């Protein structure tokens, strides 16, 4: 059946929408596309472009809905299929997503961008071997495909092939000296020094007044690292302060609201929890509860060096279980906690275990170091009474300054202002103190400084708490070959445990606001 014809006005609307999307303005494309679809609801191009607009503004479910409609009419259109695959992946329909993404590469095997889209999704899904293969196919077709080369370098970082990662990022920078992602990833390795010429190149890139704010932030964090590597600490901190100040303007964070939330958590779990139906439920789980940059990746790497433990990193499953329960009840966590029965908590625990079954496919135990675990210790005790919980903490000033130096990929909004950082650390401290008092003997207190000073003694204590037999491999975690999904620490944990990682003493004069507001 031939596609419906459009009126001249609808043709003009479609043209306007295409131009707006090419300029990255889905807001300007949406209304013209709605007019086209009102006149010709089955017009595949309009359905497809409307899906693109929805995807660009973050509505992947609606994007997939409209791209599916277009794909039914043009099932062998690889451009529709690759974009549908991306929308499906973002909306959580991963199996269907990979069918579409793979089909697009079959239909257009010489299109580098389609191989990149497949490789990117595979990498996000932790299918790293196949991801690397797809990305190499993309680069064989187009060696200047910057995103494919950066993503391949990211995989090298995760796998511990640091020299190969550096080489790929350097290739990117040879082609595009102002490429912010490559600079950020080089700086993020932390074990690789940046040169004086690197610092000058980043400074030249920052002189471009047309840079998007997010790009300027990335370059600013990279400049900090390059200047610190040249021991120019005053200039380094100034670059860091400017990058953080700009990033703070781009995100939302309310320290007072967070304090109220922590108060509500403490109040909710101040009431006795129902006796668990099965006290052993969750005995396969080792949860690491900490703020970022507190040594949690090292602790996970130590545990994952044990032959019985899989390291799952910062997985979202616990957050998803609690969020879905909140939606079901029509109340935000923790305001439904006192209404939950033993049966409710057991149901949530079993849901979490079902979602995380993939992490027990090869080894019987696994670690979960989700970044909000420290707020959910009470819920963990109720859902998974058999789980082990490790409170991993570090010197407050060092923790906060380490966060301030880190440009996080997503989800961490308290770290771009020293006052916000102090407030968040104070909330963390009082809540973790509360958990220790509320659940004595169930939350292992692990100091990062003590761990690196007395590694064998602390690792033996840690394994005993987790009811794991001692294994000497845990004493040399840097020799363990495994994927480390936290790229901020992926290079560091592959070095021998060391106690000289503190950075704040060099910047003490600049951290007065932070130190003043921390509760000591």
Automatic annotation (TrEMBL):
PANTHER family: PROTEIN-TYROSINE SULFOTRANSFERASE, PROTEIN-TYROSINE SULFOTRANSFERASE 2. InterPro entries: P-loop_NTPase (IPR027417), TPR-like_helical_dom_sf (IPR011990), TPR_rpt (IPR019734), TPST-like (IPR026634). It holds the Pfam family Sulfotransfer_3. The keyword Zinc does not apply. This is Uncharacterized protein. PROSITE patterns: TPR (PS50005). It comes from Dyella flagellata. Keywords: TPR repeat, Transferase. The keyword Transferase applies. TPR repeats lie at residues 112-145, 146-179. The lineage of its organism: Bacteria, Pseudomonadati, Pseudomonadota, Gammaproteobacteria, Lysobacterales.
